[in-house]
Amino acid sequence: MPPEDDRRLVALYDAHAPSLWRYVVHLTGDPSGADDIVQETLLRAWRSPRILEQAPESTRSWMFTVARNLVIDEARSARRRHEIGMAELPDPGRSDGTDALFEGLLIEEALAGLDMEHRAVIVHAYYGGCSVAEVARRVGIPEGTVKSRLHYGLRALRLALQEKGVTR
């Protein structure tokens, strides 16, 4: 930069920086942020040689416009919105049990649609936690019949659930 431009830039700073700084502080309420914006405004003036050659009134107007635009850009930036990184993700919360309640109701309706023999072995085996031998003893039928009723009962239960919109 030629010495003449240096003198113009120093004169520009001396003439406009204090009032520009007060203007930015008025807009933002942040004195340290105002320093950055005034510095960036002067840097942009330095990068635009035509600004240094304009009349002082035009230069002042241009600088205040640039400063206002920088304040607006800063206000819109993510840094200004105080986005904070987190070491851990927040707790996703707990299920309120609504899904489990609806699934239970669907299964209950599907079980109600089965005949009594199939429903009895399924309830004893899956909800009672009984083995095939225990189901046979409780219901009073042979183990082979329990296995057969479980097979056909589960097949009918799956079809009933599919008809209700449950898929798998």
UniProtKB/TrEMBL annotation:
Keywords: DNA-binding, Sigma factor, Transcription, Transcription regulation. Residues 12-81, 110-158 form the RNA polymerase sigma-70 region domain. InterPro entries: RNA_pol_sigma-70-like, RNA_pol_sigma-70_dom, RNA_pol_sigma70_r2, RNA_pol_sigma70_r4, RNA_pol_sigma_r2, RNA_pol_sigma_r3/r4-like, WH-like_DNA-bd_sf. The keyword DNA damage does not apply. The keyword Glycosyltransferase does not apply. GO terms for molecular function: DNA binding; sigma factor activity. This is RNA polymerase sigma-70 factor (ECF subfamily). Belongs to the sigma-70 factor family. ECF subfamily. GO terms for biological process: DNA-templated transcription initiation. It comes from Agromyces flavus. Coiled coil: none annotated. NCBIfam families: PRK09645.1, sigma70-ECF.
